[in-house]
Structures are given as structure tokens and as C-alpha cells.
């Protein structure tokens, strides 16, 4: 019996880092209802990421983005519109309320968000301050005298 093991659930709710403890925790807490709406997490460079959420039928006023304590929350819900009564003969476009959360790594910032053609694009950028960057220490081969 061959068992296929996928790491995909580990990478769904994190952007910009590889901390396995946090990834395993989020995979264990993965709710079954988190598949709506579908979304992609894309890497466009060493420090550039994009989250693309399929938000068909939603307008900008129906969506809300919030970053708090390193967690990006995307929520949406249809607000009551112009009061026009609509009778659906068939309603196949899901417009139910949703809430997606993404844990962001240190120094990941939300740069922009836009809604186009039913897709919500959220651009992220890693901005590492100079004091947090790795520093190369030169080795000059000169032995320092022992402290007395």
C-alpha cells in the first residue's frame, strides 16, 4: 500500500518563511471550510509575494483586508445592495461570507491590493532592515593577544 504524503497544507497559510513549527500548527488547525474561496500564494522574486483570491461577484466595498500581529486577514461578505428584489432561477455563483487568515513572516509588509476581473491581488514585500541582515565577518589571519 502506497501512501502519498502532501506538504501542500503546510504552505497554505504562511507567506515568506519556513518555520516548520508554525507550519505544522497551522496544518493541524486547518479547518475543512477554509477552501472557500480558492486562492493562490505566488512567489515573484526573492522578496516579492502575491496572494490571489478568487472573489467572483464581490465588489471592493464587500471585501476587507486587515493586518494585526503578523496575521493578514481577508474577509468578505455581500452587503445588502440597492434594495432591488432578485429572484434566482439558479444561483451557482457562491457569494457567501468568508474569512481567510495568513500568518506573515517577520518583515513581510502588504504593499498593495487590487480587485480586477474577479481576482483580489494582494502584493507582499519582504523589507529586512539593515540591522537584521546577515553580516559577513572578515577573517584576517592575525591572532589577537590573549586577555589577561
C-alpha end-to-end distance: 67 Å
Question: Pairing-aware structural class of the strands and helices?
Answer: mainly beta
Strand content: 25-35%
Report low-confidence residues grouped into runs of 5 or more. Answer: none
CA-based shape: rod-shaped
- Overall helicity: under 10%
Number of DSSP helices? 2
Count of domains: 1
| Overall pLDDT metric | 78
- Based on DSSP secondary structure assignment, what is the total number of beta strands? 8
Account of the 3D structure:
- This protein has 148 residues and is mainly beta.
- The protein has one domain (8-79, 92-130): Immunoglobulin-like, CATH 2.60.40.
- 9% of the residues lie in helices and 34% in strands.
- The chain contains two helices and eight strands.
- A four-stranded mixed sheet has the order 1-6-5-4. Strands 2-3-8-7 form a four-stranded antiparallel sheet, with no helix packed on it.
- A hairpin with a 2-residue loop joins strand 4 and strand 5 (71-76).
Write the layout of secondary structure elements.
Blueprint: H1 8-11, E1 14-15, H2 20-28, E2 39-43, E3 48-54, E4 63-68, E5 71-76, E6 98-104, E7 108-116, E8 119-126
Parallel strand pairs: 1-6
Antiparallel strand pairs: 2-3, 3-8, 4-5, 5-6, 7-8
Amino acid at each position: 500500500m502506497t501512501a502519498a504524503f502532501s506538504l501542500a497544507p503546510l504552505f497554505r497559510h504562511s507567506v515568506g518563511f519556513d518555520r516548520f513549527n508554525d507550519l505544522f500548527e497551522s496544518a493541524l488547525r486547518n479547518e475543512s471550510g477554509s477552501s472557500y474561496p480558492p486562492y493562490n500564494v505566488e512567489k515573484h522574486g526573492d522578496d516579492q509575494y502575491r496572494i490571489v483570491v478568487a472573489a467572483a461577484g464581490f465588489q471592493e466595498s464587500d471585501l476587507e483586508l486587515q493586518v494585526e500581529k503578523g496575521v493578514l486577514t481577508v474577509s468578505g461578505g455581500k452587503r445588502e445592495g440597492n434594495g432591488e428584489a432578485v429572484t434566482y432561477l439558479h444561483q451557482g455563483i457562491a457569494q457567501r461570507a468568508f474569512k481567510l487568515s495568513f500568518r506573515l513572516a517577520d518583515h513581510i509588509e502588504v504593499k498593495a491590493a487590487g480587485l480586477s476581473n474577479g481576482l483580489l491581488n494582494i502584493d507582499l514585500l519582504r523589507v529586512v532592515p539593515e540591522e537584521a541582515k546577515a553580516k559577513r565577518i572578515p577573517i584576517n589571519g592575525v591572532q589577537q593577544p590573549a586577555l589577561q
